[in-house]
Amino acid sequence: MSWQAWATVAIIVVTMALFASERVRIDVVALMALAALAVLGIVTPAEALSGFSNEATVTVAAMFALSLGIERSGVLEPLARLLTRIRKPWLLTLAIMLVIAPLGAFIKNIALVATFLPLALRVCSQTRTSPSRVLMPMAYAAQMGGVCTLIGTSSNLLADSLARDGGLPGFNVFEFTGLGALLAVAGITYIMLIGRWMLPRESNLPEQENEEIGKYVTELRVTEKSSLLDQTIAEAVLGENHGVYPLELLRGERRMWSPRSQKLQVDDVLLVRGSWDKIETFRNRAHLENAPEARYARGASETPRVVAEVMVAPASPIEGHRLGETALNWRYDATVLAIHRRGHILRDKLSNVSLAVGDVLMVLVDEAAMPRLRADENLIVLSQRESVRPIPRKAVIAVAILAAVVLVSGLKLLPIPIAAVCGAAAMALTGCFGTKDVYEGMDWKIIVLLGAILPLGTAIEKTGLSHTVVEGAMSLVGYHSPLGALLMVYLLTALLTELMGHNPAVVLMVGIAISVAHAIGVSAQPFVVAVAFAAATSFATPVGYPTNTMVYYAGGYRFTDFMKMGIPLIGLFCALSMWLIPLFWPFHP
């Protein structure tokens, strides 16, 4: 191989390692790979920037806007309210999957899961059912629905765009629907008959943490009236008497070196951990103040305030930022009272905590600001009062616009990117979302990732690396076994998806899949379809797909729970795909 090919291999390996480690944001990793390819001269400047004008990138951006319009218009709220009437956990699981899977074919699956996650948690609480019985199937159903149409997931659009670049005719909007629907039916059936018995019956948080120590870390300030004055923490026996566990004692800006032996003074701040109900009971009995609330207290004329639990969503721009940098205070006039981070005991002042995906914040906020907080895609409201009823007219308009986009693109009256852009403009003009909402609701990480990672596929082709990989792979499966080659492509894509995400896996594999098909003299379409479906159905880890990450934190799962449930499901999808893909897209048309 040439030095350019070896350099491309090195860039791919480093990129995969960074994607898998999650130490650097995915869009930054993609930009680093793009910069390396351009600086080394492996791709030209025009090729380096071509990803940002690619049809897939533009279409994904427009579909984000359409999905935002559907979500903000309140179309999903009637369905959500209907599901709250279900009291049997197995029936709730089935109903949610049957609702989410069809919607996932047209609406961004992260938005779907974010909408239905609070109601699933609420019903689980009312029926005393562990959320772990419901949330993972919900995340899987969103992925199953996404593969049913070309516009259901960004990886489908990306596979189509790369296929067209490789000289293939591409796919229409509903070309994946037949195979996707069959796989979704098989997947839902598997989950209901077999998979649900593999789900944990209780939350997999450690028992002591779940029942004794509780979830939240908060700051409590000692007042002049406090019954703890002049007592040591050891003398107060907070854990035994109140179920609240002290972590640190802060005096001014100092941490006391031996907190349990220090006598408590006025304005001392106790960093404590416990369930929120026990913390509140203890605070009232001991005449303490919640330190963050006191810090931002307002006058007596303030509007009614409510307490809400919100979770930091995947791909949220506030990830890695401290509380003071999140704009929660000035945007919603909200005060973060406590933080829960699964698997970690926080020992820093709340203002010094860098937020991570899955962190649950106990927030004190104006009741009037709750609709805006629910609409913020960077946060998922887990506990909430009844939502404000949406304006029916906007909901009807939003659905009509989305249906028009699907119809126009499905009939090939307009190309998909143009139809999607027109639909986004129509939603903005009709007020389905605000003029600023579309920019705030856009998942810019994914858009930058797509634009920056696409030239990597160009580099793989230009350097001859794909030819080298294909030759090595075909020596294993042989040149006379198209089904064996298809299986190899599917499994390799599934593995790469779990390691680095679905979009980068598609970029790496589509060119290789087309080359494999050409090497054995068969149609390349079945191989591209295998890449698209393997990449869009990532069930085996909580980090392979954003919906998995969302329920991983909220459901209290272990990493191995996804493997037990997801690996057999991937095997089922793979086996069915090997049978069905050649039927829908023959090797020899």
TrEMBL record:
The chain crosses the membrane at residues 6-21, 28-46, 90-117, 138-159, 179-199, 395-411, 446-465, 477-497, 504-521, 527-545, 566-585. Pfam families: CitMHS (PF03600), TrkA_C (PF02080). Keywords: Membrane, Repeat, Transmembrane, Transmembrane helix, Transport. One of its GO terms (biological process) is potassium ion transport. One of its GO terms (cellular component) is plasma membrane. It is a multi-pass membrane protein. It is found in: Membrane. One of its GO terms (molecular function) is monoatomic cation transmembrane transporter activity. PROSITE patterns: RCK_C (PS51202). It comes from the Bacteria. SUPFAM superfamilies: TrkA C-terminal domain-like. Residues 205-288, 294-379 form the RCK C-terminal domain. Signal peptide: none annotated. This is SLC13 family permease. The lineage of its organism: Bacteria, Pseudomonadati, Pseudomonadota, Gammaproteobacteria, Lysobacterales.
